[in-house]
Amino acid sequence: MKKVFKSLEQQIEILESKGLKINDYEKAKEILFKENYFFVNGYRHLLINPNNNNVFVEGATFDELYAIFIFDRHLRNIMFKYILIIENNIKSIISYQLSKKYGYKEKDYLNPKHFRYDNFKLSQVSDVINKMKRQIRLNGKQHRATKHYISNYGYIPMWVSVKVLSFGIMAELYSILKFEDQNEIAEYYHISTSELAIYLYLLSNYRNLCAHEDILYDHTTQRSIPDNRFHQILDIPKVDDEYIFGKNDFFAMLIILRQMLSEDEFHDITNEIGYEIDVLDGKIDSVDTKSILNKIGFPDNWRELENID
C-alpha cells in the first residue's frame, strides 16, 4: 500500500480510529509536529490490545504513548552516557597496552606484525589498519589534540589518536590483537577475551543506536552474550533452553555495564533507570508497567543485578 502525506489532523484521526484517546488535541498536534508521527507511533506496540493488533488497549491515551516515547529517550540518554565512559576506558587501556609494548608512533602501533598473523585474520588485520589510518587522516586535523601533535611532532601517539577513532573501530581492533594482548586487556575486567570481544561489538551497536535517537526498547543485536552467573542468580526464565532476557537486548547491555563500570558508576546508572521507571509508572494506567519492562527485556528483579558479586 502506497504511503502518502498525512496532515496532523489526519494523523490524530488514525490514532483515534484505533482506540487511542486524545485528551488535548492541540498538545497532541504540537508533539506530532515536533517529534514525528512515525517515531511516536513506533511505541504503540506497548499499548496494543494483545487480542487485536489493530487497536489499543481500552483506556490507552496519547499522553501514555508519549510518556513511553519520553521514557525510551531518557533510557537512551542514560545508556549513551555510560557507554561513553566505557568507550573512553577501553580506548585508554588498549592504547596503553599497545604503546607500552610496541611503541607510540603510528609506524609502531599500526605495524601489521604486531597483530594476529594467522591465515583467518590476515585480511581483517589489513582492513582494520587501513580503516584506522583513514580515520586518523580524515579526522586528525580537525581535533585539537591530534592537530597539535601533527603540527608540532609530525606524528600522533596512540593515546591521542584514539580520540578520532570510532568505538566500532576499537572493537574491530581488539578482535585482531594478539591473544596475549587481548588477555591482558580482558583481565582488567575479569572476563574472558571472547566475552570482551562480544561485549565491545554490542556496546558499539548500542552506542550508534543511542547517538542517532533510534528506538531503544525493542532493539536486539545479531550476536548474544554468553550465558553467565547473572542469568543464573537472577533466575531468568528460559524458553527452549534459552534465557528470555539478557542475551541480546537492553538488559544484556546492563549485564555488560555491570561488569565494565565501577561499582559507583553502576550504582548511579541503576538509580537513574529506576527513577525513570518510577516516573513512567506514575503516568501509565492502561497497562501494567512491568509488562512494558518485560517487553524491553527487564526481568522483574532487574535491580538485584547491582548486588551480585
Written description of the protein model:
The protein is mainly alpha-helical and 309 residues long. It has helices spanning 8-17, 25-35, 37-40, 62-102, 106-109, 122-139, 144-153, 158-161, 167-176, 179-189, 193-211, 229-233, 250-260, 263-281, 289-296, and strands at residues 48-49, 52-56, 238-239, 242-243. A hairpin with a 2-residue loop joins strand 3 (238-239) and strand 4 (242-243).
In a few lines, what is going on in this structure?
This protein has helices spanning 8-17, 25-35, 37-40, 62-102, 106-109, 122-139, 144-153, 158-161, 167-176, 179-189, 193-211, 229-233, 250-260, 263-281, 289-296, and strands at residues 48-49, 52-56, 238-239, 242-243. It has 309 residues and is mainly alpha-helical.
Beta-strand percentage? under 5%
Q: From the helix content, strand content and strand pairing, which structural class follows?
A: mainly alpha
Biggest β-sheet description: 2 strands, antiparallel
The helix count comes to 15
As laid out across the biggest beta sheet, the strand order is 1-2
Binned, the helix content reads: 55-70%
Whole-number mean pLDDT:
92
How would you describe the shape? globular
